[in-house]
């Protein structure tokens, strides 16, 4: 048995070593990425859910981090955000992301909003309230135009601290949305305990609309639940006109997804943000 397990180890070891080495190298590269100007933001439109794309009015954009690695090319945030999280780099990177997003949004026509993702480490270990406050002052962005997206993972760690932080952030006038709702533990008590302004229904439920009746039932229930708690509801990952029509019919407030637009450098949305000169 000993030999067998040894054999198993030698089979998988090289690959695992490679993965660990990859992560280590990526971590080193990431630590200089900001300074080297390799990070940028893509912006994906968020719309008020109309019954068709033409009827869906753009209300803002979600900022999504992009890393152009000098050798590897584009590295997915699904890969580099966790590395930044574990190594603590996320605090500096998150600060850069928030500042860039707010600076950009400050130049958009007034009602347009910007949504920025806050990661757990950034939320629980940095001075997130002080940071948001100073960046709003620095960029001149009206607090009401900034929305912070957090996942429930942030709050599971420390309920009391999470609640205190959310209250202080809301006191600044920014809005808070619960990202990826339904993908984790999503206990209903969280919705009652934390002052969210918005729920983002996880893409998985939207993808499955029309494929299984359970997803439709869940989406419908989340919309009702959120509205009952005076929160607004946005669906992510909306890719088809059928999904959009269903969501509009069920009274979902917002939609985001490839149907409305992919995440792109903001210049590509110059028409939408009324800055024709960028196009
Ligand atoms: P997320 O916050 O749930 O962001 C939505 C992701 O879904 C984005 O992936 C977006 O490109 C993708 N998406 C949007 N619409 C559609 C669609 O219709 N179909 C499909 N298949 N996908 C769609 P992306 O940009 O690769 O980001 C992945 C994740 O990385 C994000 O998930 C978020 O958790 C994290 N992330 C990205 N940027 C940041 C950031 O600036 N800060 C932090 N803390 N996390 C970030
Ligand atoms: Ca998000
Ligand atoms: Ca999400
Ligand atoms: Ca997601």
Structural notes for this entry:
This is Diguanylate cyclase (GGDEF)-like protein/PAS domain S-box-containing protein. With 279 residues, the protein is α/β, with parallel strands linked by helices. It contains eleven helices and nine strands. It has helices at 2-33, 77-87, 89-106, 120-125, 128-139, 153-157, 159-172, 188-193, 203-207, 213-228, 241-249; strands at 39-48, 57-69, 73-75, 113-117, 146-150, 175-181, 198-201, 232-235, 254-256. Bound molecules: ligand C2E and calcium ion (3 copies). Residues 179-180, 200, 236 line the site of one calcium ion.
Bound molecule kinds, no repeats: ligand C2E, calcium ion
Number of strands: 9
Strand content: 15-25%
What class do helices, strands and sheet pairing give? alpha/beta
Q: Number of helical runs?
A: 11
H and E string: HEEEHHEHHEHHEHEHHEHE
Main pleated-sheet profile:
8 strands, mixed, barrel
- C-alpha termini separation: 66 Å
Lateral arrangement of strands in the main beta sheet: 1-2-4-5-6-7-8-9
Overall pLDDT, averaged? 90
Supply Rg: 20 Å
Helix content: 40-55%
Looking at the structure, what is the overall shape?
A: globular
What are the segments in which pLDDT stays under 50 over at least 5 consecutive residues?
A: 1-7
